[in-house]
Specification:
Layout: H1 3-12, E1 17-20, H2 26-37, E2 42-46, H3 49-55, E3 65-67, H4 75-86, H5 93-100, H6 103-112, E4 118-121, H7 127-137, E5 148-154, E6 165-169, H8 179-197, E7 202-206, H9 217-232, E8 237-242, H10 244-248, H11 250-256, E9 268-270, H12 274-287, E10 291-298, E11 304-306, H13 313-329
Parallel strand pairs: 1-2, 1-4, 2-3, 4-11, 6-9, 7-8, 7-9
Antiparallel strand pairs: 5-6, 5-10
Helix pairs in contact: 1-13, 2-13, 4-5, 6-7, 8-9, 8-13
Length: 331
Amino acid sequence: MSFLDNVKTAARKVKKTIVLPESMDPRVVEAAAKILEEQLAEIILLGKKEDIQAQAPEWDVCGATFIDPVNYEGLDDFVETYYEMRKQKGMTLDKARETMLEPTPFGIMMVKKDLADGLVAGAVGSTADTLRPALQILRTKPGTKMVSTFFMMVVPDCEYGENGTFLFSDCGLVENPDADQLSEIAVSSATSFKALTGVEPRVAMLSYSSFGSAKSELTEKVVEATRLAKEKAPQYIIDGELQADAAIVPSIGKSKAPDSKIQGDANCLIFPDLNAGNIGYKLVQRLAKAEAYGPMLQGIAKPVNDLSRGCSADDIVGVTALTVLQCTAND
């Protein structure tokens, strides 16, 4: 069974409700129909039912819940809540109402109010259109300082990682994390990997050096980040600094870093900056023909995920199933 099949099987076992706010896009309508048919989640679509269905009449979304923000009976409460949260930033009631009538902020407020468990957007809007209201309304998870992203990478016919499954982070958001930020990314990633796979994470802090084989400002950042991550999350196996081959190839790990807790068996790879992470995931995706699921957001108080604007309906289905499993981590 493939990684995504396993995710879908796990998602079916829990009853979670996901908002798809960009309901006027045919891909979203198609995805909603498939999610409902596969019983992956309950779905909320924002807008008028007849207008939404008209975007893709060949796909049946009658099983969804339809909410039109303009006529929603709880709109005034949403507006008041948003105004109170943002008034010290210059928010007015009129501006709060205008914002709450936008689909994605409205959907995120539904998650805030526990009327839904998570949200998936970004097929139409930019990353900022999803991330900004998520941070404004939901903020970061307690005990977490920052939001970052990860990709679940599934490499075919691969003996490394978790039968070819890896988590790569951060590949989409944090450009040049300092040591403390890098440690936060590592801890969040370990938690994400366990939530999505049920497998214990083995986290490698990547560098061009393995356990002091080179020394520079760049390697020292990773060394310090490793120390901090171990302090913050002693329940997880986290080690570094490690070169990529030492992290994932057992024979090389035992040779280059024989005293490491990671013996070439890492399943979570933490890149030192966004250059390395983004380049790394794209190379693996293209050269190894890996499936790349993401970027998934981590560190937000409740699950919100951002899609690529070039996504397909099946991409939306996959990210929604992953979001359902993220919801279970908050239970």
